[in-house]
Amino acid sequence: MDATAHPAPPAASTAEEIRLEGVSKTYPDGTVGVAELDLTFAAGEISVLVGPSGCGKTTTMKMINRLVEPSTGRILLGGEDVTRVDAERLRRRIGYVIQNVGLFPHQSVRANVGTVPGLLGWDRARTRARVDELLELVGLDPAVHGDRYPGQLSGGQRQRAGVARALAADPPVLLMDEPFSAVDPVVRERLQSEFLRLQETVRKTIVFVTHDIEEAVRIGDRIAVMSTGGNVEQFATPAELLGRPANDFVADFVGADRGLKRLAVTGIDTADLEHPPVVRVDDGLTEARAAMVRAGARWAVVLDDRQALHGWLSVERASGSGTVRDACRRMEAWVPVGASLKTAFAQMLQLEAGWVAVLDGERFLGVLTPESLHAALRRSVEGAVPETAGAARS
Q1: How far apart are CA 117 and CA 128, in angstroms?
Q2: Rounded CA gap, 175 and 91, in Å?
Q3: What's the CATH architecture for 270-379?
Q4: pLDDT tens digits for the chain (394 residues)?
Q5: What gap in Å lies between CA 38 and CA 76, rounded to an integer?
Q6: How many CB atoms lie under 10 A from the CB of residue 308?
Q7: What is the dihedral of CA 176, 18, 380, 354, to 10 degrees?
């Protein structure tokens, strides 16, 4: 087919802001599905709607692509009022992923992913190239999975294919309605990780619906907690939400263990690191022992001449005429500086360690102890500022 016979595919899209202004949904019998919402979903971020069943989170999302028409208010996509544009044209600008994927069972994976490009008039060569690119991006080998049918895929593979189909025409917005809830916990965690990796590449504006606060905290840049009646009780970053719930409803919903959940969204701050005595691998043991005694420490970190972590040495082993290299022990408990406090805490528990080294590449920066980890978590909570629906973003 001649490529000039059809319109050229659109240029790669950029993420667009979504703004809800006074948006509500009231049904003919008077039931309020969604109260008046004033929310802004920032361009290029993952905004999660979370709450109990019947709180209006899916209805809110469906109003964005007009699968449900709002009763009041405006929804602006990139500054354009979506209630005033053709609904079919709008939906082709928005990728949509649902819980049960919604792949056409009698079409191959390749045909499913190419559905929207076909509707837009892309030529076959361009469509095939785009499909292969996306299948590889979501972790499916085009040569292996492209010609299979949905029934021949595992649940996790079907979800990946559904994401690829939603991204096929490079939409600026992606709507995801409980996309990973139908798979087992192990596969679900893997899909969440792959989804976050994918977002680092595509940087879409994503509205993600879930009932699971653990999932919301893990993947969301910002989270809107909704209550029955379609009200947003708090709209904030995961750290703010867990650190300072806006009210009792939010506190109950995020759970009494929100302090532990907060560990997962609090990064390591180098200002919180402790700095034990440092000795070099080629130092003599007598010299190393003297350094520990002067510092009043029972152990020291062992570094090489490149400031890389080599191990650790206890004061008891620092005796005799040898060098530190001969007596030090391997350091198992360490994390990269970009890790979360949860990762550091997990290392402490798993290895029964009293401290965890923090590295920048191979370079040693300092250590986290249970005391400094707890202090870091308290400091982050004290610095959190709660944010409610409609509040301006800083």
Answers
A1: 10
A2: 10
A3: Roll (3.10)
A4: 333 333 333 444 567 899 999 999 999 998 899 999 999 999 999 999 999 988 999 999 999 989 999 999 999 998 889 888 888 888 878 888 877 667 888 888 898 888 888 877 888 888 888 888 888 888 888 888 988 888 888 888 888 888 888 888 788 898 988 888 767 777 788 888 888 888 888 888 999 999 888 889 989 999 999 998 899 999 999 888 888 899 999 999 988 677 777 787 788 888 889 999 999 999 999 999 999 999 998 899 999 888 889 899 999 988 888 899 989 988 888 999 988 888 898 888 888 888 899 999 888 999 998 888 888 877 766 654 433 333 333 3
A5: 11
A6: 13
A7: 30
With tokens 């409610």, the residue in question is 388
| b/e burial code for range 19-35 (CB count within 10 A of at least 16 → b) | bbbebbbeeeeeebbbb
Single pTM value for the model = 0.71
* Cβ proximity of 327 and 285 under 8 Å: yes
Tokens coding 34:
């969604």
Domain positions in the chain are: 3-229, 270-379
Q: Which two tokens stand for residue 155?
A: 């649940």
d(CA 166, CA 63): 18
Domain 3-229 adopts which CATH fold? Answer: Rossmann fold (3.40.50)
Report which residue type is found at 378: R
